[in-house]
Structures are given as C-alpha cells and as structure tokens.
Write a structure and sequence with these properties.
InterPro entries: AAA+_ATPase (IPR003593), ABC_transporter-like_ATP-bd (IPR003439), ABC_transporter-like_CS (IPR017871), P-loop_NTPase (IPR027417). By secondary structure, this protein is an alpha/beta fold. It has 11 helices and 13 strands. The chain is globular, with a radius of gyration of 24 Å. It binds adenosine-5'-triphosphate.
Length: 317
Amino acid sequence: MGNETVVSVSHLTKQYRKGVRAVDDISFSLREGEIFGLLGPNGSGKTTTILMLLGLLESTQGSVSILGNDPFRTPLAVKQQVGYMPDTIGFYEYMTAYENLDYTARFLGLDAEQRRQRITASLAKMRLSSRMNDKVRTFSHGMKRRLGLAELLVKQPKIAILDEPTQGLDPQSIVEFLSLIASLRESEGMTFLLSSHQLDEIQSVCDRVGLFSRGKLISFGTVAELGKQHFGSDVLINLQAEGSTDLLPLLKTQQGVLSVEREGEHTYLIKAEKDIRPSLAQAVIGSGCNLSSLELKQHSLNDIYQLAFKEASNEQT
Ligand SMILES: Nc1ncnc2c1ncn2[C@@H]1O[C@H](COP(=O)(O)OP(=O)(O)OP(=O)(O)O)[C@@H](O)[C@H]1O
C-alpha cells in the first residue's frame, strides 16, 4: 500500500429533500493500493456516499477529492480514473461477453487492436476466455460478477468502487471473487472501495474498514485498531493447558493481563494490553502445567460490528 492519498472525504453530508440525513458529516481518506470496506446495515448511507464519490449525487455540505479532482465539478476527469460496479450490474443480456466489453472499450477511444488486446487479456484474467462468445444471459450470477471485474480491467481505473459486490454469490464464489480483487490490487496497484455486509469476507480482504450507522461513520481503521477502540484491548490470547493447578488465579495476576475468562475445562481467553505470550508460557510451565496451545486471537469484525452498533444506538437514544 502506498502513502499517497487518492480519496479524501471531508465533512461530507447529504440531506435528501424529504429531510432524511442519509450521510451526516463523514470524513476519511484512502491510500493508493488499499482495499477498503464500507460496512453498515441497510439504509445506513453506503450507497449515498458512493454516489457522491462518483459525482452522481451532489452533496449538501462537505467536499470530496478523488485523485485531486472534485467529482461533481469535474465528472469527466473522475470517470476516467474511477471504475464503478453497482450492486445490480447492467450488461446487455443479448450481447456476448466480448461485445459487452467492446461496447465499454469504444468509449475509451481505443483503436480496434488495442480494444482486442485489452478485452482478451481481461477476460483471460477473470477466467472467462472460453465463454467470451456466449451471450451474457447464459451467464451465472458469479460469472456476471467476474465479467464486471473484467470490465473494470478493460477500463484500467486507478480506483474501483464496488457496491455490494458479493451479494448473491455462494460462499465458494465469494472467496474466489475476493481473491481476484486481492490479485488485481497486487498486479495493477488498484485501490478498492467495497461496500458490504459480508463481514467475514470483508475481514479477509480489506486493509481498513469504516462502519456506518445512520449516516455516521462510527469507526474507521484496521480490524485490530477497531478491536482496540471498542474492546479496549490490544490482543486476545487463547491458552490451553492441563495440570493439577487451577490456572485462573495465576493468569489473572500476570503483568499485562486485563481479564481472563475460562472457555472450557482447560481453555482460557485472556485479554491483554499487548502480546504477552512468552511470559504467559513461562508462568504456566513454571506452575507445572502442560501448555498445549497459546494463540493470538483477533476480535472478529462481527464482534466489533455488533458492539459498535450497540454503542452507537445507546448514544443515539
Ligand atoms: N433518493 C432518495 N430520496 C430520499 N431518501 C433517500 C434517497 N435515497 C436514499 N434515501 C434514504 O437515505 C438513507 C440511506 O440510504 P442508502 O441507500 O445510502 O443506504 P445503504 O447503506 O446503501 O443501504 P443498502 O445496504 O440497503 O443499500 C435511507 O434512509 C434511505 O431511505
């Protein structure tokens, strides 16, 4: 991931005519080459934010800068550098995959040979070469998503914004789709913004996430940072040990330990200020017990999401 800021959002607000404040004073920035997950329940403001990033919707207040351009004032400059995959991808169903991509490529002003090269390379990367002359209406949902990524590749944008890209995919296709995104980041250096409520998958691919609740960005950072912010602890350690000594009092008094919970007869979950596995191992072995496992655990994005929303709704009521 580079250090250059490619997307910068400052105090962005959108109030629809009917009075709904769909996005309420949000600020964040994205770095070149990062994969960012915009997470939130239905109606929390994700799509409204995305539309403002794309210049398709005017903000009520605040500003957006995409690679130095204001998307609402200079939409063409932004459109050339940003690829967008909406939640319902609109391909021409009675045209072939190749024809659909050629239609997109013509807008880029490429000559016939450049178009052919770019399209065939993109379809190959998305493993759709064998289906390029088939009509899109014969494609499965997952194949249409892959064709959506191929279309992004034809466009070669610096930034790709994908609204609910994994919606409707089976678990295997989700894993495959997200690994394609990760590989595009590696090979093309693209920056991705994904909106989603598929937490586990997002955790596996995103460098940083932003949690949305009722138009507000209630948390922003890496999953580890969010874990610290909401759970007040840097690390969770899972320890398994057997022996005649009750380890609970011993573990509780170790330096750096914040709390200890017994999770099973011989299993403990330790909340600690930092990674103190070496001193825990010493203490356990010193007490005469057999240490069978000592693992660093992260709070799952799902745990963080649940807690963050509980906190946000407590604040709002
Ligand atoms: N054109 C509109 N006019 C008035 N209100 C709108 C309009 N579009 C969205 N809203 C409202 O703004 C809020 C945020 O909607 P938005 O679509 O941005 O949420 P979302 O997080 O993308 O939801 P989802 O996950 O369901 O797509 C909701 O209360 C929605 O009803």
